[in-house]
């Protein structure tokens, strides 16, 4: 199986490390830009060296891989997933991706779509609500020995190719988006149609609910994130020690309780910044931050810009 050295640039940042040492790659959110990206990889671009940083990593967003031509494998959570033309591989946040290889470097052609759950309509609140969303539930159901794979029927492959071309044009993963009218809306529409196809291929979810401890943690976060609660407060409300709950949640979701709490607060902060004219100090107060300076510091850590700059960039001019 041939490997190559082509390394395209990546629009992601390495945010932290898991308990096992694997780096966690975060989606590089930019003000005013929908968190969706698509890229076509061909030939020698399909290589473990194309990974962000050239090394295995987990990530905090969803990834869809579609093999349009050729065959090869994708390494996820230490399992080699064989893929052939027409296959779709669904990689969920927290899974460790070790890279791809191809058996046919002269013929290989694979699409990769990156997106955050809140790019999908209806996923705006609880950070793990996407696992129960009808268009995303298939990503939460791992197959035996690795991520879930599906098969696109031959009659549907031309439609998939067209939608993926639209995504790559309207929301290129590694380049600045084109200055086209309604590019974000076009990308969101194309992604939605792809996910509708995925949901139909996957069929009904195999189970009706998620992990009870994780669900309880997320409910506690949803109920209290507007107040200055901590991981200790969440653990105490559920009757666990802080250390035990942190370990369990990290093992089962790839993130700690604090990271989920922070993400929920950031979701609300971004919403308030875009949809209201509240001063940053009031945004901080309504998202559980002790003062504006603390919100600014955490927001810059997460997004690379201040809340005020995010607000300016996210609003139409």
Describe, in plain words, how this protein is organized in 3D.
Residues 215-313 form the HTH araC/xylS-type domain. One of its GO terms (molecular function) is DNA-binding transcription factor activity. InterPro entries: AraC-bd, AraC_XylS_family_regulators, Homeodomain-like_sf, HTH-like, HTH_AraC, RmlC-like_jellyroll. This is HTH araC/xylS-type domain-containing protein. It comes from Cellulomonas algicola. With 317 residues, the chain is an alpha+beta fold. The chain has 2 domains: 12-172 and 184-202, Jelly Rolls, CATH 2.60.120.280; 212-314, Homeodomain-like (Arc Repressor Mutant, subunit A, Orthogonal Bundle), CATH 1.10.10. It contains 9 helices and 11 strands. Strands 3-10-5-8-11 form a 5-stranded antiparallel β-sheet, with helices on one face. The chain has a 3-stranded mixed β-sheet with strand order 1-2-4, with no helix packed on it. Strands 7-6-9 form a 3-stranded antiparallel β-sheet, with no helix packed on it. Helix 1 (157-170) packs antiparallel against helix 2 (183-202), helix 3 packs across helix 4 (231-238) and helix 3 crosses helix 6 (257-275). It is globular and about 55 Å long. Residues 1-10 have low confidence and may be disordered.
């Amino acid at each position: 199986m041939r490997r190559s050295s082509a390394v395209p640039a990546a629009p992601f940042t390495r945010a932290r490390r898991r308990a096992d040492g694997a780096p966690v790659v975060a989606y590089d959110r930019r003000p005013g830009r929908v968190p969706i990206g698509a890229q076509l990889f061909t030939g020698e671009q399909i290589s473990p060296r194309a990974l962000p940083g050239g090394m295995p990593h987990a990530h905090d967003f969803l990834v869809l891989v579609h093999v349009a031509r050729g065959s090869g494998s994708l390494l996820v959570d230490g399992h080699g997933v064989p893929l052939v033309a027409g296959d779709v591989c669904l990689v969920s946040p927290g899974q460790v991706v070790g890279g791809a290889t191809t058996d046919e470097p002269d013929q290989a052609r694979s699409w990769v779509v990156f997106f955050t759950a809140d790019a999908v309509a209806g996923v705006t609140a609880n950070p793990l609500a996407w696992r129960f969303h009808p268009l995303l539930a298939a990503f939460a159901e791992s197959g035996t020995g690795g991520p879930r794979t599906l098969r696109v029927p031959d009659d549907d492959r031309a439609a998939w190719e067209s939608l993926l071309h639209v995504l790559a044009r309207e929301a290129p993963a590694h380049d600045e988006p084109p200055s086209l009218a309604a590019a974000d809306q076009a990308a969101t529409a194309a992604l939605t149609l792809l996910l509708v196809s995925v949901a139909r291929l996957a069929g009904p979810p195999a189970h009706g609910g998620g992990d009870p401890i994780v669900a309880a943690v997320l409910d506690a976060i949803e109920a209290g994130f507007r107040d200055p609660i901590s991981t200790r407060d969440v653990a105490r409300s559920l009757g666990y020690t802080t250390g035990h709950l942190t370990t369990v949640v990290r093992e089962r979701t790839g993130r700690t309780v604090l990271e989920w709490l922070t993400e929920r607060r950031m979701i609300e902060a971004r919403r308030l910044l875009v949809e209201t004219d509240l001063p940053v100090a009031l945004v901080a107060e309504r998202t559980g931050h002790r003062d504006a300076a603390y919100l600014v510091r955490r927001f810059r850590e997460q997004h690379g810009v201040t809340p005020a700059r995010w607000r300016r960039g996210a609003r139409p001019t």
